[in-house]
Amino acid sequence: MTIATVARRARVSRQTVSNVLNAPHMVREETRERVREAITALGYRANQAARQMRTGRSRLIAVRIEPTRDGVNGSVLDRFLHGLTEAAEDSGYRVMLYTAADPGAEIDAYDSLLGAYDLDAFVLTGTDHGDARTAWLAERDVPFVTFGRPWDNPAETSSPHRAAVPAPHPWVDVDGADGVAQATRRLLDTGHRRIGFLGWPAGSAVGDDRRSGWFTTLRSAGLDPTGLDRAAPDGFTQGEAAARDLLAVAEPPTAIVCASDSLALGALQAVRAPGGWPIGTGGGPEVAITGFDDTPVAQAIGLTSVSQPLAPAAACCMDLLTDVLDGGRRGAADGRHRTDPSLDGGAVRTGGSPTGPGQVLLRPSLVVRQSG
Amino acid sequence: MTIATVARRARVSRQTVSNVLNAPHMVREETRERVREAITALGYRANQAARQMRTGRSRLIAVRIEPTRDGVNGSVLDRFLHGLTEAAEDSGYRVMLYTAADPGAEIDAYDSLLGAYDLDAFVLTGTDHGDARTAWLAERDVPFVTFGRPWDNPAETSSPHRAAVPAPHPWVDVDGADGVAQATRRLLDTGHRRIGFLGWPAGSAVGDDRRSGWFTTLRSAGLDPTGLDRAAPDGFTQGEAAARDLLAVAEPPTAIVCASDSLALGALQAVRAPGGWPIGTGGGPEVAITGFDDTPVAQAIGLTSVSQPLAPAAACCMDLLTDVLDGGRRGAADGRHRTDPSLDGGAVRTGGSPTGPGQVLLRPSLVVRQSG
DNA sequence: TTGTATGCGTTATCAA
DNA sequence: TTGATAACGCATACAA
């Protein structure tokens, strides 16, 4: 069944049917009704392939799914993906998946995807200093939004060689520093004075940001953070080792804020007294532990953790994208609604000129459980 | 750039270029080479939309992603999805996502997806008794494979009204009964004699299957399972309550096999002595607990659990699909390889006529940790 | 406001 | 073995 079938049944030309679908206001009310009836009676739906060939747009957005990897933190991007799929459907888009082992491979994937599918946009996750992906896409005028800020590369900006000012692009992010600050502040409020931090090695944008939340909070409380932080690659075992090291100092911290639930899990193991699990039971030396990401593991074992508003973040990404793709028109063609980012995530639109791309910084929330 | 660009450069007709791409054997070696050179020199890639319009095939497969839902078990389908995306790419396909709140909504989604995108196939997960989705798809000759067996509905098959024999379709599944049996057998070997089972309420195909693995293993060991099992909806709290109930009997079990990691987590909580976590520390009454799915939570807290070979299962699904879609030809058009299901999952091809659709039952493995 | 003609890039049919 | 032509379903420019 094609647009011609509908046209015959409604006794109009194909063009009129097309107009009813794409520019309803150009068709007389009566005719429009007749065509609409024919459409529903026939159960007609426009063929995307044909439409795409004509318009060059596919109503498809691509997002990367990480290679199979087990682990505590893997669920974060998955949850974002769930939210994104739902948000996309609400806006009349579909999500296509691709994999890539590293940023270079990801750019290859863009190339191959774009060559074949006329994708409307990409959603990028996990941005870092001087992200090559955004540069590649921007250069080719491919619409995209990043879940993660465009972290400026300090090395590059200090270089006189080139200004290296990346063109601004729409992004959504969660304020990690604020999340860690919330956790730290709460520990201060609970009476803790020696609060340690267990994070990732310096150099990762997200990791450094989270660490800064702890650092500045202690400083503004008049406390000295010196010597109270340790760094380790993300992971249970690594976290345990680093936490042991941190607890071995002369005056060990009474609480440890961690950059991830994995590290926090390791830290819990480290503070665990022989013969007992310390959470809320008073069975060992009470060291409060907080994690980051509020993964299922944290929920399961009662770990206090910073929760990212992933579904709202995904919805924001789609909103930003539809702003670009549908030229600022509110809502999709078939009248679905837009989510208001300011509603559920404590969203803050920041910076940029009013006509520039949207930038949304979401505030995470602290989920308090038994571990601290 | 189109096929015409390539044709001009190679000094052939468009059709010859098309033949080089789709039926290389029909083109003389010399010409083929010339065309191939032009293709690489130009970096030409076929436009999927145009190809799709002509052939009616999109090289797109659809799979459902569940609505955002936090929880221990959520990761299972996510991990399958990761594997499927990778396997699809290896076969020259892409994965498109959709959501649906229930089977009815899922069928609506099929309808809308099919109307718009000419999808090549669907991958269904979480089959249950008398699955309406498979019937709907089969009726319309839409290719699909299920991750999960086509459980026969006992109520329906006993009805004289209709034979209700579903047309056989390709499927891949993991032998849950065998996984639970492995766990149970290991506990028997370790000396346990009173082994309880904590599962889901009777009626769910997967749940009943897992329970049967425990039941038959105890029976064939000459033990009486009576009174040693409890049922609860999946969840931490529910598992804890049911486990307490199970441990309150006169002669309580010394080990509990659980149908999921969520339930197992609850059970761990139930057997936890006040003041200590019992895993491997001898701090309380030692009751061995095993879970199912080997989720990140299990890995994190040292829970023995049955691990499903999800990546191999996903690869099998794609193999079965390419068998149908590419008409049994080995490998995709561009010469990627097929994974051999018999390699990494302990695959067993079962039943069915040799010419019938493929059916693959994978064997899970037991990951032994401190909890039992 | 409605209808006609044309082209998007590809593959299938058929003739050379 | 290769090439010319038509057709897939839709949207756009333009004519009516």
TrEMBL record, chains A, B:
Residues 331-341 have a biased composition (Basic and acidic residues). It holds the Pfam family LacI. InterPro entries: HTH_LacI, Lambda_DNA-bd_dom_sf, Peripla_BP/Lac1_sug-bd_dom, Peripla_BP_I. Residues 1-55 form the HTH lacI-type domain. Gene3D superfamilies: 3.40.50.2300, lambda repressor-like DNA-binding domains (1.10.260.40). One of its GO terms (molecular function) is DNA-binding transcription factor activity. Residues 331-364 are annotated as: Disordered. Keywords: DNA-binding, Transcription, Transcription regulation. This is DNA-binding LacI/PurR family transcriptional regulator. It comes from Plantactinospora soyae.
